Structures are given as structure tokens and as C-alpha cells.
Amino acid sequence: HWCGRPDSVYIHIPFCRRRCNYCDFTIQVVGEDRQRQQEAATSYLPVLLEEMEATMALLRVTQLLTGSEVTDPARPLKSVYFGGGTPSLMSPSDLQSIMSTVRDEIGEIIATRGPAVEGSAHAATAGLLTAPLSFTATNGSGSGGHVELPPRPCSTEVTLEADPGTFDMQKMQAFVEMGPVTRVSLGIQSLLDPVLDQSGRQHSQAQGLQAADILR
């Protein structure tokens, strides 16, 4: 029922450095210029926060009119997911502002652990990823797979989609502290440079491995 109390939130951050050849998502290409990236986020953020507040106001009115249980912002959420686009292009302070509105309007965030990492990679290069990361491929043809850290318990899972080359150790630590981000979905896609070039990805094999290393 759409007017029930939400226990999970998806937040779309529509900015990318470029559009990949296979992408059909709703995004805005902002290029590599950091100032242009920040200007796009600065114009988007107040509209996003206003829409979150208006959506929750409408939901509460509907709950009252239908006799449903009214959403209590003090109730813990199960998950918050930042998808895109490339959410890791935004600043940690922007993430903090969004999470503040989530807490005020939708539900409490209770996180008790550091981040886990999940991503996609080419099966043929599984050996390049070493412990503590693990890799599972769907088949021997290199059609897909994932890397992830062993799961640890957490009251609220806060996921940030991130691309290699859009964060360093300092920025990711700030995401973890200000979010708090507890899980990262890492968009490696492939660890073969020719495949990355053909698909229009912005990062290289080396950047993909560097990003995975940061998240360890």
C-alpha cells in the first residue's frame, strides 16, 4: 500500500562525468571539471530536499485521511540507497544535508559498522582482487560477478553508489562519518581496459583496483 510507513528510501543523484555507451538512465553529464560538478549539485540539492519534504507532507495527509498509521520520523529506517548517476561526485557535506532531511522527515538512521563494498568486475580478472575481498563470477565467459566484504550487522544500511576516480581515501572517510555510509556499490564494470574503452567508462583498470583498495 503506497501510503504505508516507509522503511527504505531511494535517493537519485543524477550527475555523471560522461554517459556510458550502454546507459539509458536519467542523468546530467557534468564532465570532469570539479567546479561544474559542484554547481550542478548546488542547484539540485535544494530542489531535492524540497521534494522530499513535500512528498512526506502529502504522505502524512493521505495517511490521516485513510486512517493509516502516520509515519513517525523517530522510527528507524532499514535502508537508504543513493543511486545515480554517480552519487560519489557530490560532496560529503551535501550527503550530510540530505541525510539530515531524511532524519527529520522520514526516519531515524542507526548505523553501527564501517562500510562494506559491492561492485561488478570481469570474471577473467578475478585473480587481481585479493583478500579481504572475495569474487564470485556468474560463469566462465566473463559476463559478470561481484566483489564484497563479509556482511556485518547494521541497524540501517546506507548505500552509496561510487565510481572509481571520483573519490579518494579522505573523501570516502568523510562519507562514512557524515552519512554515515555503511555500504558502497562500486561501479568497476570491468577490469579490462579495452572493455572499459568500448563501453565508454571513464576509469581504467588501475583506477578500479585503486578504488577497491581504498574501500578495504
- Rounded average pLDDT: 81
How far is the first residue's CA from the last residue's CA?
A: 39 Å
Give the helix tally: 5
**What strand line-up does the widest sheet have?**
1-4-8-9-5-7-6
The H/E string reads EEEHEHEEEEHEHH
Spans of at least 5 consecutive residues whose pLDDT stays below 50 are 120-154
Question: Which structural class should the secondary elements be placed in?
Answer: alpha/beta
| Tally of strands | 9
Question: Sheet with the most strands?
Answer: 7 strands, mixed
Gross morphology is elongated
Radius of gyration: 18 Å
How large a portion of the residues is in β-strands, by DSSP E? 15-25%
How much helical structure, as a percent, in the residues? 25-40%
3D structure, described in words:
There is one protein chain. The chain is an alpha/beta fold. About 16% of the residues have low confidence. Helix 1 runs parallel beside helix 2 and helix 2 runs parallel beside helix 3. The protein contains 5 helices and 9 strands; from the N terminus they run βββαβαββββαβαα. The strands form 2 sheets. A 7-stranded mixed β-sheet has the order 1-4-8-9-5-7-6, with no helix packed on it. It has a two-stranded parallel ribbon with strand order 2-3.
